[in-house]
Write a structure and sequence with these properties.
- With about 475 residues, the chain is an alpha/beta fold.
- The protein has 12 helices and 10 strands.
- The chain folds into 2 domains: about 100 residues, no CATH class; about 325 residues, TIM Barrel, CATH 3.20.20.80.
């Protein structure tokens, strides 16, 4: 009986041992399968790195030493250290793979959302568009930017730059890419002539032209504006970068001047400057020009008509902040302009985020480009002959389309790339050009603009 019991006990021990060995093989096989799966789920370059590591690691794995070997303790420590290193490496690879998978998932979701919403565009998608440029799309350009960490909500790709040659080349290449080849530079007597001339000279190398916006500087008068116009004629008339438009009634090209805050002078004063019989009139003189006034209210529109301006622009990009910047009123403003043979230039922008308590009511979120898209779509829908963009690099107001990058304490264009608004601007300018492609529309524009008793623009060129 005892012998039978002993035989059964031995057989049971053998079975248990076999089960343990089988379990060990199952664990090892499962672990190997998981590792292989993770390795082959990595991108090709990372998979190659892990494979080379494993080949080198296992080829140098030391053989177990005998019990009598005096170096067994050291060898055991080496094996333990290598095992820890291997596990750490695999754990890091697993973490990297999870992050890669997560980014890929976010990208897929973003692509699906973009395909369902044409106001947000795939990054760099516009690089496939044909070459184009529009001399009737103007973009505000700030020089120099007066950097202040307290008032800047975004952080530029170039850092807090100065307007040196390298910076200007970078900016002008971006502007060329968008298709807006006319810059609006806000000027006052405090702007250094050397800096302004440097900007003109650099712009010439990129076939970019510059229109001047006369700022509402302290003690500005009609007489000082008269002197400002004379200054630009004397210093920059012959410069290739000075923006000019064709005036059919004069059969010649004249520079375009934007004038900020026209309400700061009375209609009587403006008539002295802009009426043909004014006391210091620029009309029908060598210093005549195309004058576009900045408006905010309905009253400003009346002032523009009475004061003999050639057109008006809204400038503010905060929808609803003023009458002129409210999108739903642009159609009305366009009809008013047509009625009185004026030009309405709506201003579009990606958003507004000046970090000042007094401007809270004017702030507008970018919503990943949707806000910008609605402004563009509205301007195109009313048939605007000119559109201006605020801005390329007004970082203090948060209206810039220049590249912004992530930085602690600052916002960026996530989930888009730093080039999101460069690409969006190129897309919308292309859409704007497409809106005038029919021959009928081209003829209507030519008749309306070139035969007008008031002015405008590049009659010998198609849009």
């Amino acid at each position: 009986m005892n012998k039978v019991f002993i035989v059964l006990r031995m057989n049971l021990d053998k079975c248990i041992l076999r089960i343990k060995i089988l379990r060990l093989f199952v664990i090892i096989g499962t672990f190997s399968t998981v590792v292989v799966f993770l390795i082959y789920s990595l991108p090709n370059d990372e998979r190659e790195t892990v494979t080379k590591f494993n080949q080198g690691f296992f080829s140098t794995w030391p053989k177990p030493a005998s019990r009598g070997n005096q170096k067994s303790n050291q060898l055991g420590a080496d094996i333990s250290n290598q095992y820890i290193v291997k596990n750490t490496f695999i754990r890091d690879r697993i973490k990297l793979n999870r992050e890669h998978t997560s980014h890929a998932k976010i990208k897929r979701l973003t692509v699906n959302r973009l395909q369902n919403d044409d106001t947000i565009l795939l990054v760099n998608a516009t690089k496939n568009l044909p070459r184009h440029s529009a001399s009737n799309v103007h973009i505000f350009y700030t020089i120099p930017v007066k950097w202040s960490q307290q008032t800047t909500g975004f952080w530029p790709l170039l850092g807090t730059y100065a307007p040196d040659n390298r910076t200007l080349r970078h900016h002008f290449k971006n502007i060329q890419l968008t298709g807006a080849n006319v810059l609006i530079v806000t000027w006052s007597p405090s702007v250094q002539e050397e800096l302004l001339r440097h900007l003109f000279d650099q712009a010439q190398n990129f076939d970019i032209q510059i229109a001047i916006e006369i700022d509402s500087y302290p003690n500005r008068t009609i007489s000082s504006i008269f002197n400002d116009i004379q200054y630009f004629y004397n210093e920059f008339w012959e410069h290739r970068s000075l923006y000019k438009v064709f005036v059919s009634s004069k059969n010649s090209y004249l520079p375009m001047f934007y004038i900020k805050n026209v309400e700061s002078q009375t209609s009587i004063d403006w008539k002295k400057l802009l009426s043909s019989d004014g006391e210091i009139s620029l009309r029908n003189s060598f210093h005549d020009a195309v004058f576009i006034g900045h408006i905010s209210t309905k009253k400003d529109v009346s002032l523009i008509k009475v004061a003999n301006f050639n057109g008006f622009y809204s400038r503010s990009v905060s929808n609803g902040a003023t009458y002129a910047s409210t999108w739903k009123y642009w159609s009305e403003l366009k009809k008013t302009a047509e009625k009185f043979h004026l030009i309405f230039l709506p201003t579009v922008g990606p958003g507004y985020d000046e970090k000042q308590p007094k401007t809270v009511s004017r702030r507008r979120h970018r919503t990943n480009g949707q806000y910008y898209g609605v402004g563009w779509r509205t301007a195109i829908a009313i048939g605007a002959e000119f559109i201006n963009i605020a801005s390329y690099n007004d970082w203090l107001s948060g209206t810039q389309i220049e590249e912004a990058i992530p930085r602690i304490g600052f916002k960026d264009y996530s989930p888009g790339t730093p080039y999101l608004y460069i690409d969006l601007t190129r897309y919308w300018i292309h859409e704007y050009i497409k809106s005038w492609q029919t021959d009928t529309m081209k003829r209507m524009i030519d008749i309306k603009i070139c035969n007008s008793s008031i002015l405008f623009a590049n009659c010998e060129k198609n849009f």
